[in-house]
Amino acid sequence: MKEFYKKILDNNKKWVEDSLAKDPNFFADLAKGQTPPLLWIGCSDSRVPANEIIGAKPGEVFVHRNIANMVVHSDMNMLSVLDYAVNVLKVKHVIVCGHYGCGGVKAAMGNQSVGIIDNWIRHIKDEYRLHDKYLNSIEDETERFNAFVEVNAKEQVYNLAKTSIVQGAWKNGQDLMLHGWVYGLNSGFVTDLNVNISSNDELDEVYQLSNL
Question: What residue stretch is flagged as signal peptide (predicted)?
Fold first, then answer.
């Protein structure tokens, strides 16, 4: 345990040294502020590092992560990140990125209790209920699992679009586009789910907030 802890401290020192060797002003420039063009909403899974997947440097991606990359309208953590990213940092893109093999999505497909996380997984189960006919029509379990990962990511993009934060930005003429991706753990590639929303015209009328 102590050896691992010492190792990560040593790794930090080496990273600092390597970064400064490439650019002596690296940290001085970072300390001046951030203007990332992108907010990434991803899964907490340790195998899905946002910056590395898209080849971004520190300062280029604002990140929020939770189990199964969910956009839950009562989650003040997510809403606070979204509000800051959209209204202060003025990001132009928000990507919801799920990943194949997601443990949260897998747990939502079953009935086993796994503790307090059951309360979070219930939101994922709600997404399954919305698409149960399509998902239950897929006989192969792995294919159904992969399809549910994709469906969940798409639904979270729509959940983003329904927020007053995003709709307020669109009403004010702010350039903001929402995207849905899925990352392949066994390939490293992302799949664009072709859910790219840039106005509330693409939502059902009941979700279009008119008094912002």
Answer: none
Q: Write out the binding residues for Zn(2+).
A: 43, 45, 99, 102
pLDDT computed for residue 206 by the predictor: 60
What are φ and ψ of residue 42, in 5° steps?
A: -130, -175
Choice among 10, 23, 29, 47 that is catalytic: 47
Tell how strand 190-197 and strand 177-183 pair up: antiparallel
Q: How far apart are CA 124 and CA 139, in angstroms?
A: 20
Question: Is 204 in the active site?
Answer: no
Q: Which of 64, 97, 102, 179 is catalytic?
A: 102
Full 3-state SS string of 105-167: HHHHCCCCCCCCCHHHHHHHHHHHHHCHHHHHCCCCHHHHHHHHHHHHHHHHHHHHHHCHHHH
Catalytic residue check, 64: no
- Torsion, Cα 66 71 75 78, to 10 degrees, reads 70
**Annotated catalytic residue within 29, 65, 73, 99:** 99
Low-confidence ranges of the chain (pLDDT < 70): 205-207, 211-212
Examine the residue annotation and report whether 102 is marked as an active-site residue of this protein. Answer: yes
Q: What pLDDT score does 208 carry? A: 73
Written as one letter, the residue type at 74 is: S
Catalytic annotation present for 129: no
CA 100 to chain centre: 14
| From 18, 23, 29, 43, active-site residue | 43
